[in-house]
Write a structure and sequence with these properties.
Elements: H1 2-45, H2 54-82, H3 87-111, H4 114-129, H5 135-164, H6 170-196, H7 198-206, H8 213-254, H9 257-269, H10 277-315
Helix pairs in contact: 1-5, 1-6, 1-8, 2-5, 2-6, 3-5, 3-8, 3-10, 5-6, 7-8, 8-10, 9-10
């Protein structure tokens, strides 16, 4: 009897682990849309930091990210337990924020002049070069800004993950949400550390001595890393912005049945094309969600801009 009970218990555990693995895979697919932007934002946060202080700053932000998730994960799980009906509104609110942030990036050249950007970059360079500047305090400001950014993105990841496992048992939700939070933290900040040191690695390889083939290959790889690092950052920013519109727009339209069914109908109508129907359906759905995200982002930015102006007018 005891042996049978043990086998049943093991079978139940195996079943739960299978469910966890499946749910984690689904949740990971849904949250990777934010990953590119998360990488770009966090890598940009260490701009203006001395090269020898980049990794300590990344590590400090990573610790802040873990603290964020220690707050967000229990809070999100409590909401899913007490008021599961709030998950979709929270998802839509998060999707709207993603669209707003994405459109703000697109509108940045219109909202801020090139001269303002140059002044900001010059101030960063001067702060690092000036021996009288308290670099510890300067770093702390950068770290606090990065942790605030991480808090928003972490909340997005956790809420999206909860939305992906909303029908699962509570125990599975706990394991999946906690697992995704940890995996994303390690993955994101591990990659951020690699990205911010890519140019240093390239410079190191470029200085490799020797005339043999291996030395030449190392120097070639170093030049690729050195010259490719800025382009990688730009690519991450572009991919991240596009992902914000696709993910944010998809979340919002999913919460609006009419819009969701309309996009679904248009996407499925392209499936009839022989050979490439499935690819066209996926592409059409992604593009329409991205377009919806751009529209929602524009409306959100307009609303926030008007609210700010009204607030400042009445404040003063």
């Amino acid at each position: 009897m005891a042996g049978t009970s043990l086998l049943v218990l093991l079978d139940d555990i195996a079943s739960v682990l299978d469910d966890v693995a499946l749910m984690t895979k689904i949740a990971a697919k849904k949250t990777t849309g934010i990953l590119g932007d998360d990488l770009a934002l966090n890598a940009e946060q260490v701009s203006g930091i001395r090269a020898d202080r980049e990794l300590p700053v990344v590590w400090a932000v990573a610790k802040g990210s873990l603290k964020n998730k220690l707050i967000l994960v229990p809070t999100a799980l409590a909401i899913s337990w007490i008021a599961p009906g709030l998950i979709m509104p929270l998802l839509m609110l998060g999707g709207a924020y993603l669209c707003f942030e994405g459109f703000e990036k697109l509108a940045h050249p219109l909202l801020h002049s090139h001269a303002e950007n140059e002044v900001h970059q010059a101030e960063l360079a001067a702060a690092v070069a000036n021996p009288e500047i308290d670099l510890v305090a300067f770093e702390q400001d950068k770290i606090k800004g990065a942790v605030r950014t991480d808090f928003v993105l972490s909340a997005e990841i956790i809420v999206i993950t909860l939305g992906a496992v909303t029908a699962a048992a509570f125990a599975i939700k706990v394991v999946v949400v906690s697992g995704i939070a940890l995996i994303m933290t390690v993955g994101v900040y591990g990659l951020v550390a690699v990205i911010v040191k890519l140019d240093d690695a390239g410079l190191y390889l470029c200085q490799k001595p020797g005339v043999d083939l291996w030395a030449k290959m190392q120097r070639k790889a170093g030049r690729v890393c050195l010259h490719g690092a800025p382009y990688l950052m730009k690519l991450l920013a572009i991919v991240g912005t596009a992902a914000m519109f696709m993910v944010g727009g998809g979340i919002i339209t999913h919460g609006i049945p009419v819009a969701h069914h309309f996009i679904e109908y248009l996407a499925q109508s392209t499936n009839a094309v022989s050979g490439i129907g499935d690819m066209l359906e996926t592409l059409t759905s992604s593009l329409l969600n991205a377009l919806a995200g751009i529209v929602f982002g524009a409306l959100a930015l307009a609303g926030v801009t008007i609210a700010r102006r009204v607030y400042h007018r009445f404040k003063y």
